[in-house]
UniProtKB/TrEMBL annotation:
GO terms of molecular function: ribosome binding
Entry similarity comment: Belongs to the ElaB/YgaM/YqjD family.
The keyword Cell inner membrane appears for this protein: yes
Keyword Cell inner membrane (UniProt): yes
InterPro entries reported in the protein's UniProt record: DUF883_C (IPR043605), DUF883_N (IPR043604), YqjD/ElaB (IPR010279)
This protein's GO CC annotations: plasma membrane
Key words, A-Z: Cell inner membrane, Cell membrane, Coiled coil, Membrane, Transmembrane, Transmembrane helix
PANTHER family registered for this protein in UniProt: INNER MEMBRANE PROTEIN-RELATED, PROTEIN ELAB
Residue runs in coiled coils: 34-61
Subcellular location as annotated: Cell inner membrane
Protein name, as recorded: Protein ElaB
Species: Pantoea dispersa
Annotated ranges, domain DUF883: 11-60, 73-102
Amino acid sequence: MSSTDQFETRLDDDLALLTETLEEVLRSSGDPADQKYIELKQKAEQALEDVKNRVSQASDSYYYRAKQAAYRADDYVHEKPWQGIGIGAAAGLFVGLLLARR
């Protein structure tokens, strides 16, 4: 299982936990003096904060990796311009063939 698959699975689990917790909050009495309501509300707030932090960290990680890939591609094209042109032409031909089939 790749790290992306593991992240998606963990994120799905986190979102499911968050959903269940928020549903519990909504089903509770809603009485601000009710101790169970206060505990569930705190649990939901903490779960939401945890998920937001994980999503933010993952977003930063993906941004950094995409930026590094772009830099590597730029370096490659500068080192081997004709191969870069060939790859671009092949990709364009492939996309054109796919679009023409529609």
